[in-house]
From TrEMBL:
The lineage of its organism: Bacteria, Pseudomonadati, Pseudomonadota, Alphaproteobacteria, Hyphomicrobiales. It comes from the Bacteria. Pfam families: DUF423 (PF04241). It comes from Methylopila capsulata. Keywords: Membrane, Transmembrane, Transmembrane helix. The chain crosses the membrane at residues 43-64, 71-92, 104-125. This is Uncharacterized membrane protein YgdD (TMEM256/DUF423 family).
Amino acid sequence: MSHAPSRSALLLVILAGLYGAAGVALAAVAAHRLDSPLLGAASNFLMLNAAALVALAAAAHAFAAGARLGAPAWAIALGTLLFCGDLTLRALNGASPWPMAAPTGGTLMILGWLGVAIGAALAAAGRSPRA
């Protein structure tokens, strides 16, 4: 097993940092400029999933489960972007250019989290090749 994290894991951590920063910024906007439950929800999802992406990148590396946890982590990352982007645009502009972004993003997050559970279970059972 390589001791260096994979490029995918590092990209997930970079994205997590951006999501965390965006989450804090949206929380500040929601608290001080625009009292919006949509911005509050987007902020919460960004910060929670930012922490989860860092944890998933670390777990994928620590348990040599990159393929089993990496794909679900990327589904969560993309789902978060779509979901939170849609909520933010709705709060700031009153509408979103892609009406199905939030449900698509939410679905991707759900599928990603189910993939994490399945991938970890397979890794624990030793059924998947190491990645």
